Amino acid sequence: MHIRAPRRRAAALLGSAALAGALLAGPAHAAPLDATCTGTDTTTYTPGLTNTPQSVTIAGTISLTCLSLSRPAITAGTITGGGTAPDLTCAVLEQPSSGSSTVAWNDGTHSAYTYSTALGPGAAGTQVLTLTGTVTSGTFAGDSLVITVVFANADLTACDNPGGLTSRSGPATLLAT
């Protein structure tokens, strides 16, 4: 019996050491969240969208209020951008695209990023525009970036008027991880 007792103690000690190691290591963590922001997107269309396909210039501004644990001085950000899209109508409000843009942070820094877009249906007839990309330089360089805008039901009756649908807006979020 003296032979088994040391083995039991050794097994118990090894088990305790493994348990202590697991407790000290803690749970696995996802990538750190560098910034989380909420705000509003306002997009304009020139000329206004109608039911007839046409080349349209799109301009947008996203104004954000932010929280960043890694950069506490960052409390807000602004994204401006736009371009020209062919064949837009009230039925085709956005087209999948890719490109680059910049977030201007309130502390005077910037995050340049590349992105691709996707547009899909949301709840209660809304449309969800998602920009997914990577911060290529500046603040949060190397982070993944996801920007989501929910466009509320647009006044599509404006599409029947000569001036067309000239703007729409909706809540926006930005996550940098």
Compute the number of helices. 1
Detail the poorly predicted runs: 1-29
**E-strand count:** 8
In round numbers, the mean pLDDT is 81
The rounded Rg comes to 25 Å
Describe the fold and architecture.
By secondary structure, this protein is mainly beta. It is 12% helix and 53% strand. It is built from one helix and eight strands. An eight-stranded antiparallel β-barrel has the order 1-2-3-4-5-6-7-8. A hairpin with an 8-residue loop joins strand 2 (54-67) and strand 3 (76-88). The chain is elongated and about 50 Å long.
Features:
12% helix, eight-stranded antiparallel barrel, 1 helix, mainly beta, 53% strand, 177 residues, disordered N terminus
Briefly summarize what is shown.
This protein has one helix spanning 4-25, and strands at 35-49, 54-67, 76-88, 98-105, 110-121, 127-138, 144-151, 165-176.
